[in-house]
């Protein structure tokens, strides 16, 4: 083990490409650690990324700090892979602490600028390539350059497509995959989703965008026809009253206000959707229903109470979906600096249902149940 740590210490330098420490000895907690060099203000650091089941935690270390932490990093794991510009080191660590070490010469090509912490991100929609719907929606120029004032929207679209890319394996294998986008608005993300899944990935999707604004839906239908998106259509309607006689495989609801999100989630569950992607907005309902003397430091201040109510609302929604057999993750949609409405609920149906206890524990906090809980409980009682 001492030989392994010494070999790794020597290779923690500017020549390191990445080091991955994996295969933990215990379940739960951190399942993988990745270390790579980065340049921050022209100084060499090593970014340590620690992954658990739902989140990733980043920490930037100096070269000496990283070398000092090697034993601490290695001890809970069984496997190490370290790649430099000229070598690949692999090691297996037994439960007695004995390391089986292999070092192989390997020539890797890497440009120095790749160390930059702020290097240009490779987007699923690349910059510089004209995309018709982004041009018509004012995000790109005809030359494919992102309009400066719309760059946040461009990043948001690409971030959303990363979530779509992740759930593709969870979509059913069938002749037609039906997707419903509630509250689609101007449909930046709807067009992006269709173009990515149907045009780029070649999946047999049929998509419907739904919104209350008739003139906007008319314009979106015109654009879909212009781009020859034959399996994409837009309808005018309300989330709560919308019904669909066919099966729905994925439900998307982005920034649907307050209880509109609850109705969308309820409909998704009732239709047996395999995937749900939801970015809630304006969670007001529980604000007036929360009452708990133990939380006076929060409840006595309107702003804090509002934020707490929003987090509690989304937490309850996630647990209710787990009750219905979904595996749920709460993820950051885009950076908080761009919008406070940045939480995404991603739910994939597995059929493994959780118990009611987490939601029931909230009874002491709320005077009455929220909309999604009421809808689901009423459906169960039928």
Descriptive account of the structure:
- The protein has helices at residues 2-11, 63-68, 70-74, 132-136, 151-167, 188-200, 214-226, 259-271, 296-299, 302-323, 357-360, 371-381, and strands at residues 16-24, 32-40, 43-51, 56-61, 77-84, 87-93, 99-105, 177-182, 205-211, 232-236, 250-257, 275-281, 326-332, 343-349.
- A hairpin with a 4-residue loop joins strand 3 and strand 4 (56-61).
- Helix 5 (151-167) packs across helix 6 and helix 8 (259-271) packs parallel to helix 12 (371-381).
- The protein has twelve helices and 14 strands.
- The radius of gyration is 24 Å and the shape is globular.
- With 382 residues, the chain is an alpha/beta fold.
- The longest helix has 22 residues, at 302-323.
SSE diagram, text form:
Elements: H1 2-11, E1 16-24, E2 32-40, E3 43-51, E4 56-61, H2 63-68, H3 70-74, E5 77-84, E6 87-93, E7 99-105, H4 132-136, H5 151-167, E8 177-182, H6 188-200, E9 205-211, H7 214-226, E10 232-236, E11 250-257, H8 259-271, E12 275-281, H9 296-299, H10 302-323, E13 326-332, E14 343-349, H11 357-360, H12 371-381
Helix pairs in contact: 5-6, 8-12
């Amino acid at each position: 083990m001492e030989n392994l740590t010494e070999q790794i210490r020597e290779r923690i330098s500017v020549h390191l490409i990445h080091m991955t420490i994996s295969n933990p000895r215990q379940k739960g907690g951190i399942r993988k650690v990745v270390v790579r060099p980065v340049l921050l203000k022209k100084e060499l650091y090593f970014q340590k990324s620690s992954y658990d089941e739902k989140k990733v935690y980043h920490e930037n270390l100096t070269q000496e700090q990283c070398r000092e932490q090697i034993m601490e990093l290695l001890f809970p794991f069984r496997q190490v892979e370290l790649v430099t510009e000229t070598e690949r080191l692999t090691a297996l660590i037994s439960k007695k602490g004995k390391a089986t070490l292999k070092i192989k010469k390997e020539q890797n090509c890497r440009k120095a600028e790749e160390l930059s912490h702020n290097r240009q991100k490779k987007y699923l929609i690349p910059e510089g390539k004209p995309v018709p719907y982004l041009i018509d929606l004012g995000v790109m120029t005809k030359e494919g350059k992102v309009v400066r004032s719309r760059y946040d929207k461009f990043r948001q679209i690409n971030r959303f497509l990363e979530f779509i890319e992740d759930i593709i394996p969870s979509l059913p294998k069938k002749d037609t995959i039906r997707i419903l986008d509630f509250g689609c608005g101007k449909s930046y993300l709807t067009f992006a989703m269709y173009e990515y899944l149907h045009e780029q990935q070649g999946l047999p999707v049929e998509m419907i965008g739904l919104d209350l604004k008739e003139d906007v839906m008319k314009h979106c239908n015109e654009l879909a026809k212009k781009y020859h998106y034959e399996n994409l259509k837009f309808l005018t309607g309300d989330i709560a009253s919308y019904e669909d006689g066919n099966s729905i495989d994925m439900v998307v609801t982005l920034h649907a206000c307050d209880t509109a999100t609850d109705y969308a989630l309820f409909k998704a569950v009732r239709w047996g959707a395999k995937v749900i992607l939801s970015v809630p907005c304006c969670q007001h309902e529980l604000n007036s229903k929360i009452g708990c003397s133990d939380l006076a430091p929060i409840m006595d201040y309107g702003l804090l109470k509002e934020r707490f109510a929003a987090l509690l609302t989304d937490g309850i929604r996630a647990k209710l979906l787990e009750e219905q057999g979904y595996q749920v993750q709460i993820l950051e949609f885009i950076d908080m600096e761009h919008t406070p409405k940045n939480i995404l609920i991603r739910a994939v149906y597995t059929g493994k249902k959780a118990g009611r206890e987490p939601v029931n524990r909230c009874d002491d906090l709320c005077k009455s149940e929220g909309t999604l809980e009421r809808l689901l409980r009423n459906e169960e009682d039928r």
